[in-house]
Amino acid sequence: MRLLCDEMLKGLARWLRAAGYDVGMEPDGTADRQLIARALSEGRQLLTRDRSLLEIRHAKRVVVLLESDGLENQARETTHKLGIDWLLAPFTRCSRCNTLLAEAARPADFPPDVERAFRCPRCDKYYWHGGHVRRMRRRLEHWRTAFAE
Ligand SMILES: [Zn+2]
User: Fold this and answer.
1) What's this model's pTM, rounded to 2 decimal places?
2) Structural domain boundaries of the chain?
């Protein structure tokens, strides 16, 4: 499943990427029509809170309209509408640009307890599985259980 989030759902997009989903984003201010065109051409489901997008031609094929406010509620609604698995492939994508990460040699200036490092081949950002990732993983695990009903 490939997704696209509009600019009102940036927080949700980051968490979906953390879970391992391929989630496209467009720069702020991108025209609605352009979002729909990208979703159609790339076979993506377009998550949005903006009902007016449904008026654009062919939008109904790709738009998934979310009615909830706040990250937690939006994550729950997305789970129910699309069957999201929050532990699909955690921390395998760059949260910034959506590219799949590659295992990298551990940089010398990393904290000593970091054993494995990952690098985004596109924007050159490094990732490692430290405390921040552990906290995020706990939240993904919680969502998977809590939203299963
Ligand atoms: Zn990147």
Assistant:
1) 0.93
2) 2-89
